[in-house]
Design goal:
The protein is built from 10 helices and 8 strands. The protein is α/β, with parallel strands linked by helices. The strands form 2 sheets. It has a 4-stranded parallel sheet. It binds 3-phosphoglyceric acid.
Length: about 220
Amino acid sequence: MSDKANRIWEQFEKVGIIPVVVLNDSKDAIPLGKALLEGGLPAAEVTFRTDAAEESIRLMASEYPDLLVGAGTVLTTEQVDRAVAAGAKFIVSPGLDEEVVNYCLERDIPVCPGTQTASEMIKAIKLGLTHVKFFPAENAGGLKMIKAIGAALTSLKFMPTGGINENNVSEYLKSDKIFCCGGSWMVKGDMIKAGDFGLIKEKVAEAAKLVEANR
Ligand code: 3PG
């Protein structure tokens, strides 16, 4: 991995839990960014599932230089271009698409594709990656699976995402196979829709405490 990518993964490790965000309206981007920063998880994976994603990344990245903003659910190279032009510092994907991964690697854009099986992980290693997402973590075997595969594929570090919450995140955080966790429980759609950024900040702060306690 390049120095640039390694610096991003180091930041992921430091933050510990990367909030996975679905924004339906870019007006929520700034207050959400503020809640993430003030709550103590200064990062956001803004999923490219909504029309508001690109503009939300642009707003967050320009307003909050200390917030590590990237794009999630990236499925195409065209989305990579749009996300990076908007200010995304990293690309996350639910699965491993060689075209998307190579496109990012050629441009030195940090990319963390989703993997689930040993075969997909070996493909990731062959492409030159050291950090992958494990998705959907709880459905795909959770921490036990990461430990089992990670024992064989020792060069990989994992970002489990999917089904992680305040009740199970601590066990994941304790594992040295895991560089960070991803999750949406502290930034749920209904809280964003209700404009309850105070509650989001509280949930983010609780999550940040779990990182501190388990690292
Ligand atoms: C997602 O793609 O939405 C992420 O994996 C988040 O999963 P979660 O909502 O179970 O945290």
